[in-house]
Design a protein that fits this description.
It contains 14 helices and 15 strands. The chain is α+β, with helices and mostly antiparallel strands. The strands form five sheets. A four-stranded antiparallel β-sheet has the order 7-8-4-11. A four-stranded antiparallel β-sheet has the order 13-14-12-15. Strands 1-3-2 form a three-stranded antiparallel β-sheet. The N and C termini lie far apart (78 Å).
């Protein structure tokens, strides 16, 4: 009888150097790409303020450290991307060859297709969840599957699966934005997938998992429809302000759901993070590892030694199994045994939910105050502009 024991996926320790280098090249290409920087505000700010991203910063990225934590391999990978990245090995810094700026790179709409009718799963859920989300509320495809579908047209820079929000919870819209890396790929896809002027149907249709996809162009942000840089900057600020929530504070009310919280102590203050916690517990709790749709929230601040796991619905058997395995060391978090794990009950559970509601309200107050201050600063700084003609 053949051995049916599943073969474990390669780990950083079992992969050969060539494989790890190749995977790091792909990751660096993505992180420093226009497609990623358009949505990655942290990287944009770092490169604007410091001109670079350090190797230490990159090694905190989950998808990079899961491949390798060896700086020499990162430097080796960067050396293969000389058209995109420059590497100062001595200072351990990486820079883009062409600095990112909105005026030159645009908002990506000219390289993007809006794809609708993306497959969603149908799963048995509680009546309350069905009323909230409808029967379908998870994507039935991955970003990699969507990417592979469009790669024949050209290199895909990024796939964005769109989510809506209702009462603080995310749900999928069945829409994906496909952004190509260059105009050639976009042109080929548009020629086949978008109807020509005067025609009702496109030259070709695409399906995935039984769903026939429909396509339309992505409209540019209003601020990028203006020719002058000043008008673009001003309109972008105005549009961002218009899209902000109303600044009037309305307290958040949290309804306590019993039997959904596990308290953890004795976590490593050096190696533990939300990603490692989620990685360790998701399979036993039988939830996906996708943050937006898993129904698992990891209440943890990096550097702390305690935290909490909170589910949107109680899973008593799975939670008891996880608590037992965490306490006996069968399950490790960031390669370390936790100090203790327990399901919260009684007064401890009430105190947790009260503290959680207080945290949400304090955060909301802080966000609203920050928005008020930013608006105030923009108003005052705007008064000084226009005193003389700006040099072109």
């Amino acid at each position: 009888m053949a051995d049916e024991t599943p073969v474990a996926a390669p780990t950083p320790e079992t992969k050969d150097e060539a494989t790890m280098t190749s995977e790091l090249i792909e990751r660096l290409h993505f992180f420093f790409s226009n497609a990623n920087l358009r949505q990655d505000k942290w990287m944009r700010n770092e490169m604007k303020e410091n001109g670079c991203i350090t190797l230490d910063q990159l090694l905190k990225f989950q998808t990079i450290k899961s491949i390798s934590t060896d700086k020499t391999l990162l430097v080796k990978a960067a050396a293969e991307l000389t058209d995109e990245i420059t590497c100062d090995a001595e200072k351990e810094e990486l820079r883009r060859v062409v600095p990112f700026d909105w005026e030159t790179m645009g908002d990506g709409s000219h390289l993007s297709l809006c794809c609708k009718n993306v497959p969603l799963t149908e799963e048995e859920k509680s009546e309350g969840e069905k009323a909230f989300y409808g029967t379908k509320h998870e994507y039935d495809v991955t970003r990699d599957e969507m990417k592979a579908l469009f790669e024949p047209y050209g290199k895909v820079g990024i796939v964005k699966l769109r989510f809506g929000r209702k009462e603080g919870k995310a749900y999928p819209l069945g829409i994906a934005i496909i952004e190509f890396e260059n105009e050639e790929g976009m042109a080929k896809a548009s020629a086949e997938l978008l109807p020509k002027e005067g025609e009702e149907s496109a030259a070709k249709s695409l399906e995935i998992k039984g769903n026939k996809l429909t396509f339309e162009k992505v409209m540019p942000m209003k601020c990028f429809q203006h020719k002058s840089k000043r008008a673009r900057d001003d309109d972008k600020d105005k549009q961002e302000e218009e899209e902000e929530e109303e600044t009037k504070f309305e307290p958040v009310k949290v309804e306590m759901v019993k039997g959904c919280v596990i308290a953890l102590t004795g976590l490593s203050d050096e190696t533990c993070d939300r990603e490692s916690i989620r990685e360790a517990v998701s399979d036993i709790l039988k939830v996906t590892k996708d943050i937006k749709t898993s129904g698992l929230y990891v209440d943890y601040t990096r550097g702390a030694t305690s935290g909490n796991l909170r589910l949107t619905e109680s899973k008593p058997e799975e939670m008891k199994e996880l608590v037992s395995k965490l306490n006996d060391g069968t399950v490790l978090i960031a390669n370390a045994k936790v100090g203790s794990a327990k399901m919260l009950e009684g007064e401890e559970e009430v105190a947790y939910w009260k503290g959680f509601e207080e945290f949400l309200n304090n955060r909301k107050k802080a966000d609203l105050e920050e928005k008020r201050q930013k608006k105030k600063q923009k108003r005052f700084s705007g008064k000084g502009r226009g005193g003389g003609r700006r040099r072109q």
